[in-house]
């Protein structure tokens, strides 16, 4: 009985709802901080970047990126209305000025193409229904030369500790993620591993080449 109750609570890691969803979001903001801090070091942040955090959860990473990009803008997208409300509250000082948080999915982002300098996905890839479609959608909304950063604490599909308990959760190896990104059209895909299973993957959208006329 206790295990079933805990498993029901854990479903909120996929799509937070209600009281337990808010508890999970608070836990995410603190528990995922070490992974996020490590992943942030993989980019040389520019103060005027326009950034999109996909699966923004409780909004803690948005808050950090607002500090790293003080002249820029940070957007957040999450499938959960509970997460959107929580992240908005977390970043209310900058909301609708330099911070914009919307409901949406990774496979259908509500933005025009060539919009963002950077897109991030922290601890959320596990729950995307169609990662291949999502990666192509992220490629679309990035500016030429834009960077996509993925950070995950789980990268061993044979470790079913969490996938046995959370419905709709899938774990991918760094190599699988790299393959999917390259198939979608990303270049300069790099993978890095920290302790245990934690991985960080960065990929870039091809820069446009200038066409010169002989006229």
Please give the count of helices.
Answer: 7
Quaternary: single chain
Largest sheet descriptor: 7 strands, mixed
Helix content: 25-40%
Mean pLDDT: 92
- Using only CA atoms, what is the Rg? 17 Å
Our measurement of the CA-to-CA distance between the termini, rounded to an integer number of angstroms, reads 78 Å
Percent range for β-strand residues: 15-25%
SSE string: HHHEHEHEEHEHEE
Quantity of strands, as a count: 7
Q: Outline, from the CA principal axes? A: globular
Largest sheet strand order: 3-2-1-4-5-7-6
Class computed from helices, strands and strand pairing: alpha/beta
The residue ranges in which pLDDT falls below 50 over 5 or more consecutive positions are 209-215
Q: Topology of this protein?
A:
Layout: H1 2-10, H2 18-31, H3 33-40, E1 50-54, H4 60-68, E2 73-78, H5 81-90, E3 99-103, E4 116-122, H6 131-141, E5 142-152, H7 174-184, E6 187-193, E7 199-204
Parallel strand pairs: 1-2, 1-4, 2-3, 4-5
Antiparallel strand pairs: 5-7, 6-7
């Amino acid at each position: 009985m206790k295990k079933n109750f805990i498993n029901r609570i854990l479903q909120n890691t996929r799509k937070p709802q209600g009281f337990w969803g808010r508890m999970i979001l608070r836990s995410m903001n603190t528990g995922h901080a070490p992974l996020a801090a490590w992943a942030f070091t993989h980019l040389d942040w520019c103060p005027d970047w326009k950034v999109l955090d996909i699966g923004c959860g409780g909004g803690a990473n948005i808050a950090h990126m607002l500090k790293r990009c003080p002249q820029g803008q940070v957007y957040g997208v999450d499938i959960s209305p509970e997460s959107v409300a929580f992240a908005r509250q977390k970043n209310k000082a900058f909301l609708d000025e330099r911070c914009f948080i919307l409901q949406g999915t990774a496979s259908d982002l509500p933005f025009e193409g060539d919009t963002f300098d950077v897109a991030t996905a922290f601890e959320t890839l596990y729950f995307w229904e169609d990662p291949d479609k999502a990666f192509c959608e992220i490629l679309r909304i990035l500016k030429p030369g834009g960077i996509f950063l993925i950070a995950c604490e789980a990268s061993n599909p044979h470790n079913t500790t969490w996938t046995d308990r959370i419905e709709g959760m899938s774990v991918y190896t760094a190599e699988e993620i790299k393959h999917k990104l390259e198939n979608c059209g990303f270049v300069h895909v790099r993978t890095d591993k920290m302790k245990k299973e934690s991985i960080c993957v960065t990929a870039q959208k091809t820069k446009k080449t200038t066409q010169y006329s002989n006229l």
